[in-house]
Design goal:
Structural class: alpha/beta
Number of domains: 3
Oligomer: single chain
Helix content: 10-25%
Number of strands: 24
Distance between the termini: 53 Å
Strand content: 15-25%
CATH topology of the largest domain: Metallo-beta-lactamase, Chain A
Length: 464
């Protein structure tokens, strides 16, 4: 059996390429939308992808199952929670008709050469969620299980996202109780079975995910804190407490993954343009500047957004840009290509062009303010803390308003129109990006350099 983890550090998302080397056939579990990665990995291993399987309708990225189905790959999706939770795109092939697909029931099998995958309904994170036991040849027992967003290394998938991110009221506690029931199935697995989760540390799909890429059933039963809680009511309270703030695009991902993301065919290729061709940002038009914060702050096209290509890039910019926006970039060619690949994973496709940073010249006429932590509360109408809720409640600048940076775009009306806003986070990275968004929307932001970490080192009051 050929087995390969294909991991996105940016989204902390794992897809699995599993192939039968005897027949040359392969399946990919939970592919993201830029499917060329999986096709290339399969080709390098002498395999052909014939199947794509989803564990559930994802909220944090766009599935690549439809993209692969357009190439003739058979799609497997869960039907375990009925039609309301089954993707609608299966019957909407781009050229007409339906894709080759199978809607899975509990215990259904998928054959890929001499490999068998068994779908097990494991609801809780979502109602339709399935995990896949993987059996090689005639072993009769699973070598491992692809647990999707059910069991992570060190944690379980959060059951509140349908309510907190997608707005489906009254689903938090029932989801938590379903998750509790699903753990009984997990406990029945052989302890030697490997656990292949859908996410790692940094994902917003849980609160305590480990950075180790895989584990075993036995290890998780001994050391996963969520699996060691005794009693359903205690489990429900613990699993719902302290979950991180979901990015603003999660509801959009749910909707698009049900309806079907537009077929890409290939990644967009924005053209190189002159700085003079960069438009003024306005409704439906975005300029995304990929330079470091210091360079951006010193001079940029008025109304631009800003972000480095780091491990929070997609979560941040995916929450600030909508699919209908036409995107222009200030970037070098390799940066532009990287940004395109990351952003198509969250439905941003309309890339019009990019200009080189060194050619901005007089177009870089806007600047942004920054102060040290000693002045965090000085001359501001509002002190805005853009950290996660758990960070804010642990301690913050007295009187600071809290809006997580990935939810800020949808909550700007909670701030006084045109206000001077001193923006603070943990170390200054998230607050810098939030500052650019605020400036774009008519506020006067001032970034607090060093963030709350630096603020705690001076003799200044803290509220909790």
């Amino acid at each position: 059996m050929h087995f390969r983890l294909i991991y996105d550090d940016d989204l902390a998302q794992a897809a699995y390429l599993i192939g039968c080397q005897r027949t040359g056939e392969a399946i990919v579990i939970d592919p993201a939308r830029d499917v060329d990665r999986y096709l290339r990995a399969a080709g390098e291993a002498g395999l052909k992808i014939v199947a794509a399987a989803e564990t559930h309708v994802h909220a944090d990225f766009l599935s690549g199952a439809r993209e692969l189905a357009e190439l003739g790959v058979k799609a497997y999706v869960s039907g375990c929670a009925g039609p309301d939770w089954t993707p609608k795109w299966l019957g909407s092939k781009a050229g007409g008709g339906s894709y080759d697909h199978h809607v899975l029931a509990d215990s259904d099998k998928i054959k890929v050469g001499n490999i068998t995958l068994i779908a097990h309904h494991t609801p809780g994170h979502t109602p339709e969620h399935v995990s896949y036991g993987v059996i090689d040849a005639d072993a009769g027992e699973p070598m491992g299980v692809a647990t999707g967003d059910f069991v992570f290394v060190g944690d379980l998938g959060r059951p509140d996202l349908l309510e907190s991110a997608a707005g489906v009221k009254g689903t938090r506690e029932p989801g938590a109780r379903e998750l509790w029931k699903s753990t009984s199935w997990f406990r029945s697995l052989p302890e030697y079975a490997q656990v292949w989760p859908g996410h790692g540390a940094g994902s917003a799909c849980g609160k305590a995910l480990g950075a180790v890429p895989q584990s075993t059933v036995g290890y998780e039963l001994r050391h996963n804190a969520a699996l060691r809680i005794e009693g359903e009511d205690a489990f429900v309270r613990a699993i719902l407490d302290g979950q991180p703030d979901p990015p603003g695009y999660f509801a959009r991902m749910k909707r698009m993954n049900v309806e079907g993301a537009p077929v890409l065919g290939a990644l967009p290729e924005p053209k190189l343009i002159s700085a003079g061709e960069l438009p003024e940002p306005r409704d439906g038009v975005v300029v995304l500047d990929l330079r470091p914060w210091g360079e951006f702050r010193a001079g940029h096209v008025p109304g631009s957004l800003n972000a480095d290509l780091d491990n929070i890039f997609t979560a941040t910019i995916g929450s600030y840009i909508e699919p209908h926006h036409h995107v222009y970039m200030v970037a070098h060619p390799e940066q532009a290509a990287d940004a395109v690949r990351r952003l198509v994973r969250v439905g941003i496709d309309r890339f019009e062009g990019y200009a080189l940073p060194e050619e901005l010249g007089s177009r870089a006429s806007a600047t942004l303010g920054e102060v040290g932590v000693e002045s965090a509360r000085a001359e501001a109408d509002v002190v805005l803390d853009v950290r996660r809720t758990d960070e804010y409640t642990a301690g913050h600048v007295p009187g600071a308003v809290h809006i997580c940076h990935t939810q800020l775009a949808g909550r700007l009306d909670e701030l006084p129109t045109g206000a001077r806003v001193n923006v603070i986070c943990k170390g200054g990275r998230r607050s810098a990006r939030a500052s650019a968004l605020l400036a774009k929307n008519g506020f006067t932001p001032v970034n607090v350099a060093g963030g709350f970490d630096a603020y705690r080192t001076i003799d200044a009051p803290v509220e909790s």
